[in-house]
Amino acid sequence: MLYWVSRIPSFSQSAITLALVFGFGLMPGAAAAEAGLPPGDEDVVPSSARAVLEEAFANLYDCDTRAKIELVMRSRSGAERRRVFQTARKDIEGHLHSIGRLVEPPYLRGMTVLTIDTEERGQDAFIYFPSQRRVRRITTAQRADSFMGSDVTYEDLERPRADAYRVEFLASETFQGEAVRVILAVPNEPRNYTHVHFLVARSDSALLATRYFKRGAERPFRVLRAERESMHTDAGHVLPTEITVENLARGTSTRVHYYDLVVNPEIEDRIFSSRFLNRGVDPLARSFD
Q: What dotted CATH number matches 28-274?
């Protein structure tokens, strides 16, 4: 539901410590039974539910963007920590390329992460360490890993696909004062949740909330909520600029604020390469002049 990168890798013994969120998913058949979906071939999934979900994903992800992003992480005790990024995302020859550069806090400034979706390996990921002046290619993290100790996970940063789930319409309800379709989705591959509810606005296909459930639970353990009043409309896309991620199990939350958001800006292709990162210059300097 977050849209600046598709997924960021994790690494050990580096400038940041990532808080890991470990969980155990079910195999697809068991997960479907747990969520209440009938077993069988995914051809039984109503195409209309899948079409609604894919339209919501396309609205959120199928455009180039440039933005600054602030993460404000609140602990159970109310203590807050802050991270600020410059980010850019571009589709190049059908593959999503994303880059994020830390600008705050000062001790992390200049650390840059590049991800490139590929058909062969799924995703290439590179990170530039300014203290070492070098680029490292690293393995991608588990989807449930915490991004920089926040309540945001790497899966939140991916470009999801409706065909990665078995889906059906669950209900219609009112959320934040407007009508939404609630789509029940069970992942085809094991995740740290058994099923998820996507709340899609009837008016414009904006994804207003995502609720994640553990096996046997009636209440979600984690919720992402987009604030309608702060959404940005441009080039046929309706994009949230304020997202709250709550981990109800831990009693923590993270506020994600996008500002200076530009849709379909001019972004040079060449900055989305490990070779460019190796030069040690700010790849987003021109974009944020």
A: 2.50.20.10
